[in-house]
């Protein structure tokens, strides 16, 4: 069933056929279909609505941001960040980008640099690298939204299924210090993320340098 999300046969917001109909189409039991839909619902890829049916999940800003955005205020409150896009450029891929995104030599990538704000304060300097082949025409998007994962899904048909992050402490560079309004050398939390599509191919490399004097990185281990 995931293949139907990948190839666009099932679009965001679309109501799915009944479990019985899907089972007939795929030649499997209705119980197998139910288990598969339960798994998709657990991954927030479909939404079950009582009395109405099962729908392909739409990329709602709050749901997606809180799924992937883990900075939390020290008092425990969670807020959605705001973002300003500083630059968007097409460039030849560096070796690091090719390794992260599994790109062939001489590939081109988009590089987005932006600043993210919490409570009106710049707290994240962020660089996003995307393969041009999967995001053709990104430079023609009228406005890159705060929730870029929603843009990936609605404009390019790419749903982020999961992401892998590596976290370490770094010192603010001169560029980071200017962007975040902090002294050079200030401790920052660096989050290096690779986001994968539903086909398990890497579609985004994101590096976020975060001020954490009033925030922490929260992981809920369940």
From TrEMBL:
Transmembrane stretches, start-end: none
Keywords: DNA-binding, Transcription, Transcription regulation
SUPFAM superfamilies membership: Chorismate lyase-like (SSF64288), Winged helix' DNA-binding domain (SSF46785)
The HTH gntR-type domain, residue ranges: 1-59
A biological-process GO annotation: negative regulation of DNA-templated transcription
Gene Ontology molecular function: DNA binding; DNA-binding transcription factor activity
Organism: Propylenella binzhouense
Protein name per Swiss-Prot or TrEMBL: GntR family transcriptional regulator
InterPro entries attached to this UniProt entry: Bact_HTH_transcr_reg, Chorismate_lyase_/UTRA_dom_sf, Tscrpt_reg_HTH_GntR, UTRA, WH-like_DNA-bd_sf, WH_DNA-bd_sf
Pfam families (alphabetical): GntR, UTRA
CDD domains (UniProt xref): WHTH_GntR
Keyword Transcription attributed: yes
């Amino acid at each position: 069933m995931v293949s139907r999300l990948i190839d666009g046969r099932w679009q965001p917001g679309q109501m799915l056929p009944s479990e019985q109909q899907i089972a007939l189409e795929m030649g499997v039991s209705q119980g197998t279909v139910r288990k598969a839909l339960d798994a998709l619902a657990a991954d927030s890829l479909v939404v079950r609505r009582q009395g109405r049916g099962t729908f392909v999940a739409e990329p709602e800003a709050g749901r997606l941001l809180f799924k992937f955005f883990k900075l939390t205020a020290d008092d425990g409150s969670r807020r959605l960040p705001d973002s300003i896009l500083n630059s968007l450029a097409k460039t030849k891929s560096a070796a690091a980008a090719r390794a992260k995104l599994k790109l062939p030599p001489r590939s081109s990538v988009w590089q987005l640099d932006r600043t993210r704000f919490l409570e009106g304060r710049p707290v994240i300097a962020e660089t996003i690298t995307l393969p041009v082949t999967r995001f053709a025409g990104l430079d023609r998007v009228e406005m890159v939204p705060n929730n870029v994962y929603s843009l990936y899904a609605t404009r390019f048909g790419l749903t982020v299924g999961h992401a892998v992050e590596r976290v370490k402490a770094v010192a603010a560079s001169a560029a980071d210090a200017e962007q975040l309004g902090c002294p050079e050398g200030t401790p920052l939390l660096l989050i290096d993320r690779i986001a994968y599509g539903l086909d398990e191919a890497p579609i985004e490399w994101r590096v976020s340098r975060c001020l954490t004097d009033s925030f922490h990185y929260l992981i809920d281990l369940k």
